[in-house]
């Protein structure tokens, strides 16, 4: 290449760049990798009594995960879910593992709260191991009371979390996300109360708020709602419908429930298994399907 030709090319380069730039500006944007596209939420169910082995085949067609008790549920003296983890794994269910928490009336002093919290955590860890749930599984402590909890109950929750972590599992809590008015313009949810009092401990939150709105009622055919729509932005799971429905909260979505006031899977034509309905960020909220 002669020096004169090289000089000509260098002279024309800025002009060529100006011609190419508008074309590049109109080019198609780069494709987003599949793993970067947000996935939709997972639909789950929970109930205190195991629905039966045959029911799982029907329920799995609709639900990605299920609540799984590792203690007797509230009001029960035995646990009918015991020994069913293997079958549910074969059907590719995810899990939200549950342990019954103490009622507020059962805890009188801080010393008693610490003792019972640690004892319940050790019992929960033993039961989780017996069922085959791996280390680091989240165990949700079932807290039934709504509104602000007594100070002594927070001692119980902190003891539960610390002992569960020491046993190799992670703490979670199932609790209310329904605002309770305390007067003078002050409202509180149990979830917010726990989060502020148990810090810096990190709980995973399974909240219930079946009030319509924000709850869609017993409507499994609709798109699964994001847990943050519960009113608790940090919720991992939202229980958005309960069976039977609570009339004081569900008047605006009554048509979505069965005539008896319960929720049923679409495939349950005989209405044999009434359900509570849940939405989660993951198809395996406890991280237990291993």
Question: Would you spell out the secondary-structure blueprint of this structure?
Answer:
Layout (H helix, E strand, L loop, with lengths): L2 H23 L16 E5 L6 H7 L5 E5 L15 H6 L3 E7 L9 H22 L6 E5 L8 H16 L3 E7 L3 E4 L2 E3 L1 H9 L5 E5 L28 E5 L5 H4 L25 E5 L10
Parallel strand pairs: 1-2, 2-3, 3-4, 4-5, 5-8, 8-9
Antiparallel strand pairs: 1-10, 6-7, 9-10
Describe the structure.
The chain has an eight-stranded mixed β-barrel with strand order 1-2-3-4-5-8-9-10. The protein has a two-stranded antiparallel ribbon with strand order 6-7. The chain contains seven helices and ten strands. Residues 1-39 have low confidence and may be disordered. It is of the alpha/beta class. Strand 2, helix 3 and strand 3 form a beta-alpha-beta unit. Helix 4 (110-131) packs parallel to helix 5.
């Amino acid at each position: 290449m002669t020096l004169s030709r090289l000089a000509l090319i260098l002279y024309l380069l800025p002009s060529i760049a100006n011609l190419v730039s508008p074309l590049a500006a109109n080019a198609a944007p780069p494709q987003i990798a599949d793993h970067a596209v947000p996935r939709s939420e997972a639909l789950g169910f929970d109930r205190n009594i195991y629905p039966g082995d045959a029911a799982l085949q029907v329920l799995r067609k609709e639900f990605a995960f299920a609540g799984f008790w590792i203690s007797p549920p509230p009001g029960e003296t035995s646990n009918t879910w015991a020994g069913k983890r293997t079958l549910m794994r074969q059907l590719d269910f995810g899990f939200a593992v549950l342990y019954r928490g103490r009622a507020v009336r059962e805890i009188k002093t801080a010393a008693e709260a610490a003792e019972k919290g640690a004892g319940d955590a050790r019992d929960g860890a033993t039961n989780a191991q017996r069922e085959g749930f791996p280390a680091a599984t989240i165990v949700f402590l079932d807290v039934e009371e709504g509104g602000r909890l007594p100070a002594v109950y927070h001692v119980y929750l902190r003891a539960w979390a610390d002992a569960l972590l020491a046993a190799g599992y992670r703490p979670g809590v199932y609790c209310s996300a329904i605002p309770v008015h305390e007067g003078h313009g002050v409202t509180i949810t149990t979830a917010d109360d726990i989060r502020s009092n148990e810090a810096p401990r990190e709980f995973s939150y399974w909240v219930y708020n079946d009030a319509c709105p924000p709850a869609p009622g017993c409507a499994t055919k609709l798109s699964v709602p994001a847990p943050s729509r519960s009113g608790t932005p940090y919720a991992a799971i939202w229980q958005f419908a309960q069976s039977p429905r609570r009339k004081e909260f569900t008047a605006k979505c009554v048509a979505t429930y069965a005539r008896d006031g319960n929720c049923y899977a679409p495939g349950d034509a005989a209405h044999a298994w009434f359900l509570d309905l849940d939405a989660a960020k993951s198809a395996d909220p406890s991280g237990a399907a291993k």
